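Q: For a teaching handout, I want to show students what a protein-ligand complex looks like in token form. Below are the inputs, and the small molecule is beta-L-rhamnopyranose. Please produce the holo structure.
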Amino acid sequence: MDITVQLRAQRIETPSWAYGNSGTRFKVFAQPGVPRDPYEKLADAAQVHRYTGIAPTVALHIPWDRVDDYAGLARHARELGVGIGAINSNVFQDDDYKLGSVTHPDARVRRKATDHLLECVDIMDATGSGTLKLWFSDGLNYPGQDDIRARQDRLAEALSEVYGRLGEGQRLLLEYKLFEPAFYATDVPDWGTAYAHCLRLGDRAQVVVDTGHHAPGTNIEFIVAFLLREGKLGGFDFNSRFYADDDLMVGAADPFQLFRIMCEVVRGGGLDPRSGVAFMLDQCHNIEPKIPGQIRSVMNVQEATAKALLVDRAALAVAQSSGDVLGANAVLMDAYNTDVRPLLASLREETGLDPDPMAAYARSGYFETIAAERVGGAQAGWGA
Ligand code: RM4
Ligand code: MN
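A: Here is the structure, written as tokens, with beta-L-rhamnopyranose included.
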């Protein structure tokens, strides 16, 4: 099949929080022109779509993107040429959640957390979003602090209540993360735990793989292959990491790993829009400009996808079945070592886009405009 067809059909979702200020626990460096509200975040996201042509949806994070009128926000997005993507819940920034949210030992706190998740489904209804993305910071810092098993029961109970609230065409994605902010035991630490919960919930619960949420050296492409085979890969939170959950630009730290992941996506049919695999970014641009950071990230995913599509599957199958270890590996490396940038540039030109999205954005003057216009008010950031 002509790989350009698949490349044209690929969609990558950008996160509203990538456009706001961010940093580490040491310092947040504010940048000029940063959005003051969700409407401005959507405007910035629309720029990424305008120059890449493949980023038409924006994930929201509640309460960071709380507004009075969600249907109005969705309308605003449509006017800008984008749509609302996954609704991300946030049960990690309230004093009540010190000892957990849906796994908290106190039923009152669990109720409050679950109610927030249900509110996120209401927001899905209002915005037309089909995806609820759940990440829990819940966990323990010290052995004996709480009952590990009871916390799994509480988690299952909350998940099943939320699952029951989902409407037609809506699904729930459960994210896992090895550690942080909990340092001893996390309640959803790995894909196996997320998978087991999703399996019990039903078809409309799937696992989301945040590429920054594993121990160093973890073979993420194996997880991708396994989940896809089981119909349980809901999507990705793409980013890259050198040490922990660094939230750097996807494909920056390890483009070869991104290629290997995309190879398994292609192999498992995950590029087919009907597979439901969502390609989302979950990144923070702490020191680099944000809109170009997103454009670069979208392009990195696109390049890795193009390389994965170039793998000569027939030659690979022959090499694999004949036990040709070096030949099989060479098929993959040939694809990885192909410069796909000219192909993607001409693909863009064919669809009326500038072949160089980074340069086109820089030339557009958008940054100068927002830097001049967005003065006063409170810039968006974590906790805003
Ligand atoms: C978490 C997780 C979630 C994201 C937040 C901001 O580590 O990756 O997906 O919404 O960070
Ligand atoms: Mn994530």
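A: Two things your students might notice: The pocket of manganese (II) ion (ligand 2) is lined by residues 135, 175, 210, 237, 282 (CB under 6 Å). The chain is about 45% helix and 10% strand.
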